[in-house]
Specification:
Length: about 240
């Protein structure tokens, strides 16, 4: 299945499309036909449009208004809706969503725990989260710089001001889309609030992190129970 031409670089297009195929291999769309699925960070809606023909009620959510304008202009499905919203303030009722898809989104979150808790809150008790994120090891960064050095620059995030649209740092103009989390912090945050059902990597599941470049995790919402402290009995 071919999704979209993201850039003029055929290698980049292949990598981007392979991550979407990986997500589809984990999601059982036939079992989700009566589900409500939210594509977080949907951008121009490439993947949202893939999900909507599967008889799913699909909502594409993003914080970039211009991206959603383009997504709406290409939308031809009555089952697909686009919403302008912030990940930290989701416009959904608690326990109202069946499936949340975060493809290459969590690495952009400054407050990772806050975003994951918001997603967890809107998921139904048996709801699932499919999270995909890059495995940015040293080897990955080295190879990517050779392939596309112009848009893969790492900056000191302590200097980054998320309130500005763009800020000049280190001689470059950087957008708010810079990566603020790595795969280790994402894995740790997911384990706090979700129970893992499946995990796959690109190019192959059995490859170690060093030789992989993308990972997908299908996880189920878990119930967090507060442990009450027993009071001391006084005789």
């Amino acid at each position: 299945m071919h999704f979209a031409e993201f850039t003029k670089n055929p290698l980049i297009n292949t990598l981007y499309n392979e991550r979407l195929r990986l997500i589809l291999t984990i999601l059982d769309l036939n079992a989700l036909r009566k589900s409500v699925i939210v594509d977080f960070g949907c951008g121009k809606g490439y993947f949202s449009r893939v999900l909507s023909p599967q008889s799913l009620t699909t909502i594409g959510l993003d914080v970039e208004r211009q991206a959603l304008v383009k997504a709406n202009s290409a939308n031809k499905s009555s089952k697909l809706h686009f919403v302008l919203a912030d990940m930290y303030y989701l416009p959904f009722r608690s326990r109202s969503i069946d499936v949340a898809v975060c493809a290459s989104v969590l690495e952009h979150m400054r407050n990772l725990d806050g975003a994951i808790q918001e997603i967890r809150d809107v998921l139904k008790n048996d709801g699932m989260l499919l999270a995909g994120y890059p495995l940015e090891t040293r080897l990955f960064r080295f190879v990517w710089r050779l392939v596309r050095p112009q848009d893969f620059r790492y900056i000191d995030q302590s200097q980054y001001d998320s309130s500005t649209c763009r800020q000049q740092l280190g001689g470059y103009w950087e957008c708010p889309g810079t990566h603020k989390q790595d795969y280790r912090t994402i894995r740790g945050a997911l384990r706090k609030y979700f129970g893992t059902l499946q995990k796959k990597k690109l190019p192959f599941k059995m490859f170690p992190d060093l030789l992989s470049y993308y990972e997908c995790v299908l996880a189920r919402r878990t119930v967090i129970r507060a442990h009450k402290k027993k009071s001391d009995k006084r005789g």
